[in-house]
Design brief:
Number of strands of chain A: 12
Radius of gyration of chain A: 20 Å
Shape of chain A: globular
Strand content of chain A: 15-25%
Strand order of the largest sheet of chain B: 5-6-7-3-8-9
Oligomer: heterodimer
Number of helices of chain A: 8
Largest sheet of chain B: 6 strands, mixed
Order of helices and strands of chain A: HHEHEHEEEHHEEHEEEEEH
Number of helices of chain B: 10
Largest sheet of chain A: 7 strands, mixed
Strand content of chain B: 15-25%
Chain lengths: 296, 283
């Protein structure tokens, strides 16, 4: 068992004034304890003492604290922002992790052990030995229908989700379908209604019985929750208005030609628009002729 | 002997600490007669209602009449479990076969009583309706709480109830915020009736409505009672409303029941001085 000082020395950390992985050991222990509870009660929001990290609140501090408390020697880290490894937010967080741990980072989904992400789930199927850490802006799915946090917690405790169902009913009645695009509410393990972070509806089927552990952290709201591997995750839907993922009208990715991935629109210099894969790592993999197991 | 649908005994709701047993005057709560006030001179305790007991039988309409501040609404909100009374018991035949005090029910049981076994119509529609949700959605809320998961089924059921309460169906997907007060009350009644409750509580259902609309709502309540065979407790400060609807009536004043009996009897031959005043001022 290596001491923290040894770990720091071995990793060649350039910030010798800080603990390994920035957070102090008590903070990490507090987070891990909360995570254990979250895993034990899938979809339940566990409060934790959110620490200050050198990232502004609202820019992934919850996900970052989870990542920092679960990583150690041997881990390979990947950070993505809206599917993109090159996002400013992703770059900053990746650099912070590198400098405070000396761990290797990667752009490849298959090569990572811990993937921190904002608003997307990778297109490649995750394995048992991988952990997906999601940054959550608003952990409370009932915020839409109940302003009081105390009342919302009581509703969770009693599994009283009639008001949430009513909101979906109203949407169907007035607009013909449920119009929630990202962060569609899901029922985890047949018990808790959970905010699926703002991942697009496209990504929700990937959460159902996934082999990987999913951890969700909301730093500003001081809540974290989890979907353990092989857990049932079901979108809230009506019998006669089933849940549907987004469609792109059969348009393939303009870069790699993939026919069934989640696409993002890019504005070109001449004002025209092209649709390319939102998951840049998967797009690159296809361009270099690599193969990976996907969800489709 | 007919078994009561609802048996209420010693329902008391007070605010502030009581001086029972202390002081020489005796606390308001210990007095048997009408103390002439709802607040105790010795300890400042407010008794919104004290020691209210009555029975409601299946299919009957019980009226509660009294001036404002007499505790009528407090009794209704206690029965609907909006708030918990300070003391008292209520046994409801539809809940655990009437063996358990509904005021001791835990939260899921309380929710079951409110969502499935009782319906309520408040005086102010905004208390009973969510004005930011369509009229149909307000009725649907109780069905969704009962695990209905088909939009088409919910809509046809909600439309059925709204039609019964004479809400035009082309307004079903409009917000009740844009409805007249009378129509809001009819939506509230439709909502209270969805899920076929055993008991409906009407708290001043026609107060604030103009006379012709009042008549329409009263007719509707009478029809509902006949069609649904549901027991109703109706609260009003208006003796003519009580006279039209209720077979039996309680007269409340200062949080206490001062007189009770057949409505006709109370209207024709009032015994308590307050009831006499009430009847003579109504005429």
């Amino acid at each position: 068992m290596a001491t923290i000082a040894e770990l720091l020395e071995r990793s060649g950390s350039r910030h010798s004034g800080y603990s390994y992985a920035f957070l102090d050991e008590t903070a990490k222990r507090d987070l891990r304890r909360a995570m254990l509870k979250a895993v034990a009660i899938p979809g339940y929001q566990v409060p934790f003492g959110s620490r200050e990290v050198p990232v502004a609140k609202g820019f992934g501090t919850g996900g970052l604290q989870i990542t920092l408390s679960i990583i150690g020697p041997g881990d390979v880290i990947k950070v993505i922002d809206q599917g993109d490894d090159a996002g400013v937010n992703a770059n900053n967080i990746r650099r912070l992790i590198e400098r405070t741990t000396g761990l290797d980072t990667t752009l490849e989904t298959a090569g990572a052990t811990v993937i921190q992400t904002r608003h997307r789930v990778p297109e490649e199927v995750l394995r048992e030995d991988q952990v997906l850490v999601l940054q959550v802006p608003y952990p409370e799915p009932l915020r839409l229908v109940e302003r009081s946090q105390t009342a919302a917690r009581t509703m969770h405790a009693e599994k009283d989700y009639a008001r949430m169902w009513l909101a979906l009913y109203e949407d169907v009645v007035r607009k013909g379908e449920v119009t929630i695009g990202a962060g569609y509410p899901v029922v985890v393990n047949h018990r808790y209604v959970m905010a699926s972070t703002p991942v697009p509806r496209w990504d929700l089927p990937k959460l159902h019985r996934s082999k990987a552990l999913h951890l969700f952290g909301a730093g500003r709201e001081k809540r974290l929750y989890a979907i353990p591997p092989h857990t049932d995750v079901a979108p809230m839907e009506f019998e006669d208005h089933p849940f549907e993922v987004e469609g792109f009208g059969g348009t393939p990715c303009a870069r790699c030609g993939a026919a069934a991935t989640f696409l993002t629109e890019r504005l070109n210099a001449d004002g025209s628009r092209t649709l390319t894969c939102s998951d840049t790592a998967y797009c690159d993999l296809r361009l270099t002729g690599g193969k990976a197991e996907t969800w489709y | 002997m007919v078994l009561a649908l609802l048996t209420v005994r010693g329902l008391t709701k007070t605010y502030g600490p009581a001086c029972r047993g202390r002081g020489s005057e005796g606390c308001l709560l210990d007095r048997e007669d009408d103390p002439g006030t709802s607040s105790c001179a010795a300890c400042g305790l407010i008794a919104a209602c004290s020691d209210v007991s009555f029975d409601v039988y299946p299919g009957e309409v019980l009226g509660i009449v009294g001036e404002s501040g007499s505790g009528k609404t407090t009794v209704m909100r206690s029965l609907y479990l909006d708030h918990m009374p300070t003391s008292g018991e209520a046994y409801f035949a539809a809940f655990e076969a009437g063996r358990h005090n509904i005021f001791e029910a835990d939260r899921p049981q309380r929710r079951r009583i409110r969502n499935y076994l009782m319906g309520i119509v408040y005086q102010e529609a905004r208390r009973g309706l969510n004005l930011l949700v369509t009229a149909g959605g307000n009725v649907a809320e109780r069905l969704l709480a009962a695990d209905w998961r088909s939009v088409a089924d919910i809509r046809s059921k909600a439309a059925d109830y709204l039609a019964r309460t004479e809400v035009p169906l082309d307004r079903m997907d409009d917000f009740p915020a844009f409805f007249s007060n009378g129509m809001q009350q009819r939506v509230q009644i439709a909502k209270a009736l969805s899920n076929s409750p055993n008991l409906v509580l009407l708290d001043e259902p026609t107060t604030g409505l103009d006379v012709s609309v009042q008549a329409g709502v009263l007719d509707l309540i009478r029809d509902i009672r006949r069609d649904f065979r549901v027991a109703i407790v109706v609260v009003s400060h208006d003796l003519s409303v009580i006279g039209m609807l209720a077979e039996r009536t309680l007269v409340m004043r200062h949080g206490r029941v001062v007189e009770s009996g057949l409505t006709d009897q109370i209207l024709e031959d009032p015994q308590h001085p307050y009831t006499q005043l009430l009847v003579s001022s109504a005429l």
